[in-house]
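REQUEST FORM: STRUCTURE PREDICTION
Request ID: SP-0412
Submitted by: Lab K.M.
Chain count: 1
Length (residues): 227
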Amino acid sequence: MIFAKRPMAGRVKTRLTPPLSPGDAAELYRRMLLDILAKCARMVGVDLLLFYEPGEGSGRFFEEAAPGWACRPQEGGDLGARLDSAFRLAFGEGYGEVAVIGTDSPDLPEEYVRLAFDLLDHRAVDAVYGPSEDGGYYLLALKQHRPELFRDIPWSTGEVLEHSLARAKAVGVRVELLPVWYDVDSIADLWRPGLAGAGTVAPLTAEFVSGLISAHPPDTPPPAGER
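STATUS: Completed
RESULT:
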């Protein structure tokens, strides 16, 4: 499952504005989204579900951006409720293992996603989390619906993973962790060597970042409204 938003100025990557303009932040997000979709489309042996943030025109946008995918609107108030709803739906359709990722890690190694499913095959593992550097998680994989994991979590803070792991322990969910990765949430993240370096797995994102770096070297971030 991929959780995504329609790339609209002022609605995505707002922590990058400034120094990016809202339009450029939306273009960056659009490229990150397409890189993630392309990566997932190359995976074999998995079905692909896309859950998008509801809004006028969102359904049509994702039907065109992800042809052949099952695209559905997210349901629920906060992120926890939306994740709970998506996992409930996926398991209700008969899937035995389900993983969710977002769109903030365009160069996430594909092998991390595969590793999550491999770990779920172990009898002593109920859930797999992919820790992100900001204190959240970039992936969650489950072998059955566990709504308890989405309750009383301080979403959009640096304590999401800590509280999630404590919650899992409290309800007897056995957890394994993937290697740490990062979200693209700040200008500093755009300057990470691997994001636009040789061999990147996020070519559309890399093209945007390379243009940004060419115009504004890493020690001189772009002024507001410029790329």
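NOTES: The beta strands are 2-4, 49-52, 70-73, 98-101, 127-131, 137-142, 175-177.
Reviewed by: T.R.
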